[in-house]
Amino acid sequence: MIPDQINGCFEVVAGLLLTLNVIRLHRDKQVHGVHIAPMAFMAIWGFWNLYFYPYIGAPWSFLGGIIVVIVNTVWVGQMVYYRKGRLKQYANEAIEFRALLDWAICSDPWPTDNKHQKTIIAMLDAKAKKFGFSCWVHALHEHSPGCCPQNHQGTND
Hints:
This protein has one domain (2-142). The chain is 76% helix and 0% strand. It is built from five helices and no strands. The protein has helices at 2-28, 36-55, 59-106, 114-130, 136-142. Helix 2 packs antiparallel against helix 3 and helix 3 (59-106) packs antiparallel against helix 4 (114-130). The relative contact order is 0.13.
């Protein structure tokens, strides 16, 4: 019984510590530095433990495991929800970027002075690099709002 109680305590502490991830993700509303696959695996493993612990007669581990399963499931659900929002934001940014590229190429002669032109070109170059292109001219020829270059996935996970 003692090993079960110790393991149950580890499960409870793990669940409480994982709650920090849920709180942080709720506050940030962005997924960064964490891949969903290991977390989904851990959540599935937790469900297995809810079957396994009673099977081996470990009620304390089972009770602690409930906390881990609930928190991991919420966290994975948050990751899916916020990643979906990020992909939608990326798609909107891609459409806006394409519109700016089209406007820039049609601006001949340039509608502002040389200083403002250089500022806008620098902004377009920075945005092009964000989308994985070397410069705005390459982006102009290769970018379409529904896709992105091979080296850019549009997510941060």
